[in-house]
Design brief:
about 90 residues, mainly alpha, 4 helices, about 0% strand
C-alpha cells in the first residue's frame, strides 16, 4: 500500500501539466498548496479451482451497518459541501 502511495505521489510530482498549472497560479500572485485524498480498498480474492466459473457467478454483497460512537463537529464549509451533495444533516434537538 505504501508503494502505491509513493507511486501516486511521484507521478503527480513529475507531471509537467500540474507544474505548469501551479506556476500560472503562483504568477497570478497566489500561494498554492495541493492536498489530495485517495481511498484505496483491498478485498482478498478467494482462490477457486476454476476461474472461468467465477465470471458467471452472482456476486453477493453483505450489508454492513455502522453506528456512531460519538459526536462530530462540522464546519460551515463541511455543511455547505454536504448540502451540495444533497446530504442533509439532522441536528439533535436538546
Amino acid at each position: 500500500m505504501q508503494e502505491l502511495g509513493n507511486a501516486i505521489n511521484e507521478s503527480l510530482s513529475d507531471s509537467d501539466r500540474i507544474a505548469s498549472a501551479i506556476g500560472q497560479i503562483k504568477r497570478a500572485g497566489y500561494d498554492v498548496f495541493l492536498v489530495l485524498e485517495a481511498t484505496i480498498g483491498f478485498n482478498k480474492r478467494e482462490d477457486s479451482d476454476d476461474d472461468s466459473d467465477s465470471d458467471n457467478a452472482d456476486t453477493e454483497t453483505e450489508a454492513v451497518q455502522y453506528e456512531s460512537a460519538g459526536k462530530i463537529t462540522l464546519t460551515s464549509q463541511d455543511q455547505k459541501f454536504l448540502r451540495a451533495l444533497k446530504i442533509s444533516i439532522e441536528e439533535e434537538k436538546q
